[in-house]
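User: Run a structure prediction on this.
Assistant: Running it now.
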Amino acid sequence: MNTIQEATEAYITDLDALQGMVGPLLLVTETLGKKFSEEYSKALEEHGEEVAVEGTRRRFKIPPEHLRKVRLADRKKEQYRTAKTLLPRTFLVSFVSTYDAFIGNLVHALFECKPEVLNSSGKQLTYKELVAFKDVETARKYVVDSEVEALLRKSHTEQFDWLEKVFDIKLREGLDSWPIFIELTERRNLFVHCQGKASSQYLKVCAENNVDTADVTIGVTLDAKRKYLTESYKCLYEIGVKLSQVLWRKLRPDELEIADRALITVTFELIVLEKYDLANRLLKFATKLPRHASEANKRILLVNLAQSYKFMNKQEQCLSTLSKVDWSACSDDFDLCVTVLKDQFKKAATIMRNIGPSGLIKRHDYIDWPIFKEFRKTSEFETTYTEIFGVEPTELLTQDTTPVSERNE
């Protein structure tokens, strides 16, 4: 596997892992907060005497022998309040840290793909440093590590400046998510260094990158609510994939087929996971790339772009995407996918019969591929599938009901 692809897949895996924990951990925090709040109320009522009610505030007189127990319950409640604020911030910091690690791995991979880029490096070695290396490869690795370390100390804007200069490519043209990226990375800095309070530096960098901060003033505390975290995840995912693809295609045009397949796989998985918006962003980028390894690859990306629109309930855009290409001379597998996206299910059944049991689309593809989701609900699909394969369109799954404690390790 190409090292650029390895770096990108590792990045996606880590980012997905973090995003997958946002909902569960915030839910657990919310549940514990409710529990601690109830325990504090119960402690007040059991061990104290209510003496006054002022709006939403109740006052209790607590005897000395119970004061410690009530204060402990109050402390747990307040710890939850703090955790409720800090946990979302921690997720954003982790998102950006994952991106930073990816940039380091990506640049390492880029230097490996094109070692001659190091010739433009401004890194100089002293004679003492030079004689300490056992060979040229060790010296080269040292220079690369030094370049990457220096790069990661730069701001995120400066990192893009460096990448554009060193690899002679424009990376920000048409990158609509750039302002979102800059704002979230700057907000991350506020969480790490300023307890989330907006600073003049934050406002300055945002203004320079067309970020709308009309409602933000110096000293205002910013948050990271769940919706914000979701958009940050999408932005970092999008920028990471686009960055690796553009640089990969620039440095290794001989690997267009591998790059295409990697992009097809990533976007297909997003559709499988029903992350249609993110898939749509990447597929719009993918279909506008200047070159693809084959016409077939470009058409696969177009079909996937169309289905992302369909599942976002944007049928007009779905049909418009399909209309950009003449599908009449395509093979049956493409014809079937296009027909299904147009909701022409009777025609789709006919094409299924033409493909037969040994065609390009296999039995499990009809069950698994998201593109057939609506088609699978029809009587035409069930009847035709059963006719072709001799079985109903179902899968047999097994569940082990043995208690975990009794299973053999």
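The longest helix spans residues 64-113.
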